[in-house]
From TrEMBL:
GO annotation terms (biological process): methylglyoxal biosynthetic process
Gene of this entry: mgsA
Entries under Gene3D superfamilies matching the protein: Methylglyoxal synthase-like domain (3.40.50.1380)
CC per GO annotation: cytosol
Enzymatic class: lyase
Gene Ontology MF term list: methylglyoxal synthase activity
Lineage: Bacteria, Bacillati, Bacillota, Bacilli, Bacillales
EC number(s) stated in the UniProt entry for this protein: 4.2.3.3
Record: active site: D60
Protein name in UniProt: Methylglyoxal synthase
Length: 135
């Protein structure tokens, strides 16, 4: 499974704690992240993360390209709703692509944990639906 991990600056510590807590779950999957988030995850865990550019420099768009090519299965994007983001159009474009391609996006810890538990139980029907309808 391909999983993207993205976190705004004020949410990076939450992402690190999430990755530490779910390291065993995340380890067998292909992980992708925007630049700084990926670096911090790798420093705090033994996870291997393919890093793209930082979000403001195009990392969100690089992950969006994988979504558009049906190469992303799940996105964990811990957003900071209280701080304006200079690259908000890129963020909205990524979320739009995820909606278009039926890719689940967890924007907070509670939703991310629910998705992890569903994936652990083999609840991957959304991917079968997406793959079937894109052929």
């Amino acid at each position: 499974m391909n999983i993207a991990l993205i976190a705004h600056d004020k949410k990076k510590e939450d992402m690190i704690r999430f990755c530490i807590a779910y390291e065993t779950f995340l380890k067998p999957h292909r992980l992708y992240a925007t630049g700084t988030t990926g670096t911090k995850i790798m420093e705090a865990t033994e996870l291997k993360v393919h890093r793209f550019l930082s979000g403001p420099l195009g990392g969100d768009q690089q992950i969006g390209a994988l979504v558009a090519q049906n190469e992303m299965d799940f996105i964990v994007f811990f957003r900071d709703p209280l701080t304006a983001q200079p690259h908000e159009p890129d963020i909205l474009a990524l979320l739009r692509l995820a909606d278009v391609h039926d890719i689940p996006v967890a924007t907070n810890l509670a939703t991310a944990e629910i998705m992890i538990r569903a994936i652990e139980q083999g609840e991957l029907n959304w991917r079968n639906y997406v793959r079937k309808n894109q052929s």
